[in-house]
């Protein structure tokens, strides 16, 4: 009974960060375990260890926390979808997606380039 009341109280309380603005909580352990197993099965001479994979994911998660609120919600949603597709969940993939989009958006738009056109070649 007390647990149910506590749950209701928590649901009704105001949080400082709206749910939509919270960074996703990804389950990266399964990805790291699978990656390590695949690397070993392939006989890679420098297979990534579970500890190294988890360290990379934790570092990416920390970097994401610093930029998450400043990232457009549509970009966050799209990149989260990519980072969690096919059952794998990765903060590294999520961070990379956001960074690549930001780099692409910062490049100058090449004006004057129109691509191929059948009507232009018939002059």
What can you see in these coordinates?
α3 packs across α5. The chain has a domain at 49-106. It has 123 residues and is mainly alpha-helical. It has helices at 2-12, 28-41, 50-67, 73-83, 91-106. Helix content is 57%, strand content 0%.
- Radius of gyration computed on alpha carbons: 22 Å
Mean pLDDT across every amino acid position: 81
Order of helices and strands: HHHHH
* Proportion of residues in β-strands: under 5%
Number of helices: 5
Task: Indicate the percent of residues in helices.
Answer: 55-70%
The N- and C-terminal alpha carbons lie at a distance of 82 Å
User: What kind of assembly state do the chains in view correspond to?
Assistant: single chain
The total beta strand count reads 0
- Give the structural class: mainly alpha
What would you call the shape? Answer: extended
Low-confidence stretches: 1-17
Keywords:
extended; about 120 residues; mainly alpha
Topology:
Blueprint: H1 2-12, H2 28-41, H3 50-67, H4 73-83, H5 91-106
Summarize the structure.
The protein has a domain of 58 residues. The chain contains 5 helices and no strands.
């Amino acid at each position: 009974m007390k647990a149910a009341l506590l749950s209701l109280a928590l649901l009704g309380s105001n949080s400082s960060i709206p749910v939509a603005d919270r960074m996703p909580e990804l389950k990266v352990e399964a990805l790291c375990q699978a990656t390590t197993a695949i690397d070993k099965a392939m006989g890679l001479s420098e297979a990534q260890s579970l500890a190294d994979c988890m360290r990379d994911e934790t570092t990416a998660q920390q970097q994401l926390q610093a930029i998450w609120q400043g990232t457009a919600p549509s970009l966050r949603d799209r990149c989260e979808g990519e980072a969690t597709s096919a059952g794998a969940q990765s903060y590294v993939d999520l961070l990379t997606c956001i960074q690549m989009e930001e780099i692409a958006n910062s490049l100058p738009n090449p004006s004057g380039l129109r691509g191929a056109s059948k009507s232009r070649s018939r002059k």
